[in-house]
Specification:
two-stranded parallel sheet; 3 helices; 2 strands; single chain; extended
């Protein structure tokens, strides 16, 4: 027996449940969010300053280009450390 409809419904309900809070949550923590994202074709535009794009990789950026990923991660950690020291 296939129960895909159950998993689809569960995922849909999960997103619906969090939707009313998502905008408020982003406003509270948005400036602190950091993402290291794949940019397979090297054509993606960053949606905000907290996004680091690694061109030429797919979903597994950390495995496909580990040096670039580690460099991006180190820069994020350095920024957080410097910001914390200023407080």
């Amino acid at each position: 027996m296939r129960r895909r409809h159950i998993s689809r419904r569960a995922i849909r309900e999960l997103f619906t449940w969090y939707e009313p809070e998502s905008e408020d949550a982003f406003q509270r923590v948005g400036r602190r969010l950091r993402n290291i994202n794949a940019d397979p074709k090297g054509e993606t535009k960053r949606l905000h300053d907290g996004v680091v794009l690694i061109p030429g990789v797919g979903h597994f950026a950390s495995q496909e280009k580990p040096a670039e990923f580690n460099q991006a991660l180190a820069a994020i950690v350095k920024q957080f450390t410097e910001d914390a020291a200023k407080k």
